[in-house]
Amino acid sequence: MLKIFKKNKIPKRAALLQSNINFEVLPRTTLLSSALSKGIDWPHRCKVGSCGTCKCRVVSGKVKPNIDFSYTLNQEELDKGFILACQSELISDIEVEINLNKNKERK
Amino acid sequence: MKFYVNLRYLIVPISSLVTILGILFGGIYAWTGVFLFGIYTIIDTVTKDIHLRAEKDESGNSYGIKLFQYLVMYVMLPVFIAIQAAVAWRLYQYTSGAQLETLYFGGVAYQNGISGLNLVGAVISAALWAGLGIIYGHELSHNKKEGFLVSRLIMALSGASHFTYAHVYNHHLDLGHEDDPATAPRGRNVYLHTWLSHAGQSKFSYDMEKKKLKNRGKGFINIDNRWLLGYLYSLPSIFLFVWSGGVVGLLALSVIWILSNFLLEALNFMGHYGLIRKEGPVEHRHSWDNDSVFTSWFFIEIGRQCDHHVRGETFFWELDDVGGPNYGIGYFSLFVLTLIPSLFRKYVQKHLDNWDKNYATDKERLIASKFNINKTDEASLAS
Lengths: 107, 383
Hints:
Chain A has about 110 residues and is an alpha+beta fold. Chain A is built from 3 helices and 7 strands, in the order ββαββαβββα.
């Protein structure tokens, strides 16, 4: 069935383990865009799933990938549970590992 | 306001339908698509000084209706298929020697059979509007699941299904860099760029699939090979044209594919010609904006390249002027200039000089100076 006919209106929550941040992710909204709208300094660059800057590791919970991650992430990263935040919607509440200081380190 | 904002993007859908009707009516009307292209070039040129911003309500939300805009983009796939089907019908009539006569369908007169000259008009009309169809292939390439597949299928009608992957994973990542085949370096003309960019993007997509399949322990000939699958999506068009017109049909499809890919690559050419990115993220300065009013509405804001390349996830109706480099004229007008490379280079030089002076970083300016030295050498050799 086409996605537009699906009813999934319950927001999910994302917990960032290393920084003790917890925020809401609305249906049909990506993890990255939700984080950015909450003012979280999540590392990102292209926002179309091609650069891999926004990658993070899912420790628990499930995401719905909007694209095939294997074009950007290697097999080892995929096996470890890495995802692209800019192309992930949440199926359940999740816990992720992400180094939010990556941006500052680069600067 | 909401209706106006959403309806203004219907120029291409309506024009595509009119083009189909023209081919179906036959006779001189087979040239309708070419005629419209000419009319729009004039309108674009006359309105080049009108520039609008993205309209928003008091809360800062866009007036764009996502469901409506997506519906239109999805519906364009069968519309573009219908254009090819209409041409195939005319090809069949031409090659089977159908008699030229006026017949009636539901009380409406149309010309049965088609002359060679008007068949040329039908083919060029179809080619132009298939080429313009890339604006939907492009927009949907940035949206996922069904949209991505629809993008692939729209591009496959022009034999360019590889575009969808190459655009997202190559062009958006490597923009302005020599690794991006869609960025034209200074001095290149649009004709050479068409071949180099098309082949380069296909090669990128080929390499990407090869690597992916190798990582998964699968062979290259595989149903998961999206590069190969993309070309398979083009097979129905080939079968249709060969079945309906034999060799003439194959020739007609070749014209449609070459011309439509020429338009696609001309957009890439105009969007980034001569701009340089040495390192770091893509910024507004790495694209040319073409945001005159007619270009914006006709090309569903694809001309707002500066904003699009920084906010690739943003819907076209939300893109805005971000103060990036701007040619100052619309795509139709600029396209005419690109057809005469010397004229285009002359026109664009002042904009490139301005870019070098006001937008480029020191490293980018250094690379630009090497191109400019080559240009000086050529000039002194010529004199």
